[in-house]
Structure formats: structure tokens, C-alpha cells
Amino acid sequence: MRSSTGRWVSGEDFFDRERELEVLKTRVRERNHVLLTGQRRMGKTSILRERGSRLESEGWIFRNS
User: How confident is the model at residue 3 (pLDDT cuts 50, 70, 90)?
Assistant: First the structure.
């Protein structure tokens, strides 16, 4: 079976997740825990990196381990 792994999407390639980004933003600002689950290749990393990038532009510190 061929591997279908790749890098996360960002910038113009990232779209149609505004609702999810707003929910994450609210949770972070309220200092709530978040558990993001889903099947592989569904965009979990991409959405977290995008939210982190947007929070950084607002002065937050986002660390990606």
C-alpha cells in the first residue's frame, strides 16, 4: 500500500474551516482544554497550525512540538 502522508496545508490552500477555527479560538481564550480527534488525513494538524498562526498574529505565543 502506498503512503499518502504529506505536509499540512496553510495560507490559500487552507479553506472552509472558519467555524472550527472560531470554536478553537473561543476555547483557547476561555482557557479550556481541547481534544481534537479524527481519522488520519482529515486536517487535524492543519487546523491547529492555522489557529496557532492566527493567534500569533494577535500576540499569543504558539508552540508546535
Answer: low
